[in-house]
Design a protein that fits this description.
This protein has 15 helices and 20 strands. The chain is of the alpha/beta class.
Length: 463
């Protein structure tokens, strides 16, 4: 069964029952060219719009999102299986994002003084042009808007190429921008093949590229952007360590670990995938973690009480199942789950491994689904070594009663973010992004506003 795309159409499959719910023909070369022309013409209008007026459009967008929250949340749930309560939360988070940037973002674009005497030199932040964004399915609205909102506030236009299985969400988002009265071309949606993406990257009208997705996709898009001499931002995979030390509050740590691992059915790039627990508390932590996981409600994602729904794509469930079987063959202890759920839906049992070592599949690879791996660390030093023993570097968590020690440990972690006594989350007030094979560049905060700007030096009367 396929639910990614055919040669001519983007197809959306309801992961609850395997039924097709959307069929979107890929656009022609002529349609792509028209979209790029609209984005270019829209840029000329939008860049000349005062930043205060751009902020007002963001407030309008927040209102549209809230007014259409139930429609958008239901589309997310139908297309990729996110439990409806979490889907509603995603829309509200997007509305809050718009509100926050409308209030705080304009100041991020103010000219900055320099150390040049007499105040004769400053740095101005100028928009680059149309930005091509290749986005994933796991947060169909949030992933788009957390990049688009600061990019648009800066005066750029945004050309979205969304994942084929969530094109319904993409078109609802396009309609939301139109309802919020953004100028034509400010936000465009293109439904194209990978060849169409390559064409767009090469096109001189596209100023830069951003992608959230797999390492393989990041390597392909990054190479094409580099060949075209265009800046790109890549937010890729992760295998985040969640460190629990002997002096941690175990109840808090377990609660955070369960949320951090199983939210969005475990389909989160920045998630608690490797639970690295100091040996003094590993037995108690494991017992409490398994008990908490067993209480999670698995089932119909449209039911408000459901916490774990179906995985978004059938092919990805097959891939996850193979990783689970490989890890078992390598000697891990299975404490819970470990297989596909019975029935026609794309469900995978919430799974917990213990006795995972650094040579096993679930340690070395990213497991994008409801599977947790518990690794025993001899001490804090060993926990840090295990945490950094990964090709990924997106985020990390430390649970401990000694916050000062945790802050020192944070400086040694090879990740884009560190969360002390709290699970990883993206928030517009702080930057988000990774290192190593988790990508490069940053989203959110002032970095997200300026990432696709020309930082232009303006110097008067230099002799």
């Amino acid at each position: 069964m396929t639910n990614i795309s055919s040669l001519t159409h983007a197809i959306s499959i309801n992961p609850v029952n395997g039924e097709q719910i959307g069929n979107y023909p890929f656009e022609s070369e002529a349609a792509l060219q028209t979209a790029l022309s609209r984005a270019t013409a829209g840029f000329r209008v939008w860049r000349g719009t005062p930043v205060a007026q751009r902020a007002q459009r963001l407030i309008a967008l927040a209102n549209v999102l809230r007014n259409n929250a139930e429609t958008m949340a239901n589309m997310i749930t139908l297309e990729m299986g996110k439990p409806i309560t979490q889907a509603r939360g995603e829309i509200e988070k997007c509305a809050q994002l718009c509100d926050w940037y409308a209030e705080h973002g304009p100041a991020m674009l103010n000219a900055e003084p320099t150390l040049v005497e007499g105040g004769k030199a400053r740095i101005e932040y100028r928009p680059l042009g149309p930005i091509l964004a290749v986005m994933p399915w796991n947060f169909p609205i949030w992933q788009v808007l957390r990049g688009a909102v600061p990019v648009l506030l800066a005066g750029n236009t945004y050309v979205l190429k969304h994942a084929p299985n969530v094109m319904g969400s993409a078109y609802l988002l396009l309609d939301a921008f139109q309802q919020a009265e953004f100028p034509e071309g400010a936000f465009e949606v293109i439904n194209v093949t990978p060849e169409g993406v390559s064409t767009a990257i090469k096109d001189s009208r596209i100023a830069a590229v951003t992608l959230t997705g797999s390492v393989r996709a990041g390597m392909a898009i990054g190479a094409q952007a580099g060949a075209a001499l265009k800046k790109c931002v890549l937010e890729l995979g992760g295998s985040d360590p969640f460190i629990v030390l002997n002096d941690a509050d175990l109840d808090d740590a377990v609660k955070a670990a369960v949320i951090g691992r199983y939210q969005n059915t475990g389909q989160v790039c920045a998630a608690a995938k490797r639970l690295i627990v100091e040996q003094g508390v590993v037995e108690e932590f494991t017992r409490k973690f398994v008990e908490a996981t067993q209480k999670l409600v698995v089932g119909d994602p449209l039911a408000a009480a459901t916490y774990i729904g179906p995985m978004a794509r059938f092919d990805l469930r097959d891939e996850l199942d193979q990783q689970v079987r490989d890890t078992l063959e390598e000697g891990a202890t299975l404490l819970l789950g470990g297989k596909k759920a019975e029935g026609s839906g794309n469900f995978y049992e919430p799974t917990v491994f213990a006795d995972v070592t650094d040579q096993m599949t679930s340690f070395k690879q990213e497991l994008f689904g409801p599977v947790a791996s518990i690794i025993t660390a001899r001490d804090a030093t060993h926990a840090m070594a295990l945490a950094n023993d990964s090709e990924f570097g997106l985020a990390a968590t430390i649970y401990t009663g000694d916050v000062e020690r945790a802050q020192q440990m944070a400086g040694e972690l090879e990740t884009g973010g560190v969360f002390i006594n709290g699970y990883c989350a993206s928030d517009p007030r702080v930057t988000f992004g990774g290192v190593k094979k988790s990508g490069f560049g940053r989203e959110l905060s002032h970095f997200g506003v300026r990432e696709f700007c020309n930082a232009q030096t303006v110097w008067l009367d230099r002799h």
